[in-house]
Amino acid sequence: MTGTIAFPKPKWLETDKFASTCIIGGQWGDEAKGKIVYTLAEYHDVIMRYNGGPNAGHTLDNITLHQIPSGILYDDKINIMGQGMVIRPDLFCQELEDVKTVKGTVSPHYLVISPKTHVILKYEVAEDLGGAKKMVGTTGKGIGPAYRQRAGRTGIRVIDFADRKELQAKLKKSVDASNAGLPDNEKTKLCDVEKEAEEYGSTLLHYMGDVAAILKKAKQKRKKVLFEGAQGALLDIDNGTYPNVTSSNTTRPSVGQTGYYLPVTMALGVFKAPMSRVGKGPFPSEWGRTNGTNETRHLIEEEKEIMEIMAQKTRDGGTSPLSNGKLTIGRNNLLDALLEKMKNGKATDAEKAAYFGWKGMEFGATTGRARRLGPLDLPLARYVAEINGLDGLVFTKWDVYSGTGDVEFTTKYSYNNLLVHERNVDDLSEFDFLSLDTAVPLFKRLPGWEQDIRGMTDWNQLPKQAKDAINFAEKAIRLPCLYFSTGPKKDEIIARKIK
Ligand code: IMP
């Protein structure tokens, strides 16, 4: 699968010393990080997932990876599933089969799981599909309960599968902890979990390896390591919009959870525009605000109809047009009508969300939910850049703005409650961030561009309006945009030369 692409080697990797890159989602996940990791992986030797689990979904050329690092699609990269992750064995085995259909075989030399990585078993999935899914709108993959068991010292780690006798006792303790407080008819049976462990344990052990030794060797041999983040900074359990967050740390310090300390040479934050969020929680610049109560965006009537046709098609056993990326039913008419309204400045916020939702296929890669959408929020991006100590920016998805009229940005917030007099804020304080649900966004419109920028690879090809919009965002975030993605394919990207 390795092929050369028209993409220069990043400057910070042009060294015979050790160097590393960390890719961090700058928003609430789904920033199209997978594509960036996949593209940059070309110039790295080791690719490591360091957090999260199957709640992530990195859509690449012809496959969506949820747990296995994106470097697996190359022939010569070592891919690590680190101790900060939680792995779903059943989904891991399924994903492995998907990768094998693309690659043939997957050698344990190129895919290595840390013995300290925790697994998610069926009782944790059952638990997650209960209360948490309703409360936070989780992905329902068992993430929260698995991290809770880890903190409660009742979790199961990959190494535990090596000792079958001991495993039985550990499983019992873990299942009991999960079942406690549940009515009898909702309790998971130990024998079902034992069966699950029996079914998948040997595959996990096949890929288990000494991660610390691999990282140590990578440093000694001056290799290049890429840390592949999952979710986004605003979903971080401590730094995000708590309680509407995931259960792990997703910001830069979580790169420390590798089992062997490695410094980060370049931290890149990925920011999508329009930006999105799935699940509940504040999203100040959301088009057609759902006041943080809604799990998905409000669909306009036409969209509802199309979604219903698609759901029917899936129920009837046909392939869901969502799952293979080919959306055809009724789509063009809807898009044309919405586009006309946008160009005339007549589109409502819900219609803008509908247009960009369908044009940009903004449906969760893991859950299929319609993502909530809004303009790029610059104060929030600046906040994320600060708390992560980012070195550079990657902008994704802006190609969907081509031919749509003005481009909107959120540039300030105003807060107005009983204690604080109304003020416009450029830089958010921690307390501003903590009351994000009361922030009122102020927007700025910049002239858009008519030309379709999809697939461009050269900065000089970009229309002036696109360059101006990028410069405007860079100035507000106070960091340079090093990569500007112009489409979902690996080589649809502009690597910017910054003096
Ligand atoms: P959990 O990670 O499944 O526990 O879900 C907690 C919250 O994080 C929910 O709002 C999810 O929709 C959101 N979330 C988790 N992973 C991702 C992701 O990879 N992209 C976008 N949202 C995510």
How would you portray this structure in words?
By secondary structure, the protein is an alpha/beta fold. Helix 3 (about 120-135) packs across helix 4 (about 145-150) and helix 9 (about 330-345) packs across helix 10. The mean pLDDT is about 90. The protein contains 13 helices and 19 strands. It is about 30% helix and about 15% strand.
Distance between the first and last residues' Cα = 33 Å
Give the neighbour order of strands across the main sheet: 7-5-2-9-1-10-14-18-19
Could you tell me the strand content as a percent range? 15-25%
Derived structural class = alpha/beta
Number of β-strand runs: 19
Gross morphology is globular
Taking the sheet with the most strands, its summary is:
9 strands, mixed
Count of DSSP helices? 13
Q: Considering DSSP H and I runs of 4 or more, what fraction of the residues is helical?
A: 25-40%
Catalogue the ligands. inosinic acid
Low-pLDDT runs of 5+ residues are none
Structural Rg: 23 Å
How would you state the average pLDDT, rounded? 90
